[in-house]
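Notebook p. 47: complex prediction with tryptophan.
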Amino acid sequence: MGKIILTGDRPTGRLHLGHYVGSLRRRVEIQNKGDYDKMFVFIADVQALTDNFDNPEKVRQNVVEVALDYLSVGLDPSKTTIFIQSRIGELSELTQYYMNLVTVSRVQRNPTVKTEIGLRGFGESIPVGFFTYPISQAADITAFGATHVPAGEDQKPMIEQCVEIVRSFNRIYGETLVEPSIILPDRQACMRLPGTDGKAKMSKSLGNCIYLADDAQTMHKSVMSMYTDPLHLQVSDPGHIEGNTVFTYLDAFCSDEDFGLFWPDFSNLDELKEAYKKGGIGDVKIKKFLEKILNKELEPIRARRKEFEKDIPGVYEILRKGSEAAEEAAAQTMSKVKKAMRIDYFDDKELIEEQQKRYNG
Ligand code: TRP
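Predicted complex, structure tokens below:
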């Protein structure tokens, strides 16, 4: 069995550094190492509509934003099939069949769904489409036979639920679907990158994001406003690392090489942390160091975005071609599923012959 990579993002806004360290950076690494047989990355507009059904224009406008972010981080359409979820009708078809294999209480227990229901203030009025999105996500994954899903920690319950669906399907209808596993970020700090205000998550509504598409000036402002250590009032005061957002970002982005490039007084992050804890290093200095590291990483991304922005029809053409290729792959799985579920009537000559005989002796 081959190694098939698949993952996606909801088009509800531009992608930010949380997305980048949580999964985007990893996807590009995998793609460029060539360590896979097929790779699919998609824009989850169907899923975005589950909680934005009343604001379709938002989803529509953000499809191209996410596509531009994908291309600018280095996803390469000649290596990775980039597509739009709603173009693949098979995904809805599969979802329908998987719904039979999942109980209402099982979806209710999904921790990510639980949190999101709370966040969106649905109360007792949970749209069925939103409630069942983990099932639709299982369709996204299995339609392409994905073996590996690079994603953030919040997607773990989704993958677990997908594995359960695969197991029940295979038990009831025979070995057909592939069990996926999640590829989590390798650094702890990348699991849930806090916003610049130190709050648990980057979110548009909190205004605490650094977007991949931000220019250097915008990012400068964000970095300079970052939450650090409220007890570190004087440069000479001992500083705290725990809960200090700038250090969390350094944990997520910094490598030893960056010290050689930008701060040769230290040779690695541990040394810098020790010095900061003792006192004598100002927050602005640390922020400037972080800013240099981020600019080094983001400069090529910004430049590529500028190029792709010049040719929006070209971007849509990439999505159209990707969607066509993805549709072919999903159709193959769909026909296996129909066969396994005994709903492949016209493809089963034996069924027709046998019934003909039964009725006619
Ligand atoms: N749930 C993902 C998000 O919040 C998007 C998504 C939809 C996805 N289907 C997927 C991710 C399948 C990985 C695999 O952005």
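Notes: The longest strand covers residues 4-9. Residues 6-10, 44, 47, 137, 140-141, 149, 151, 155 surround tryptophan (CB under 6 Å).
Next step: compare against the earlier run before touching the bench.
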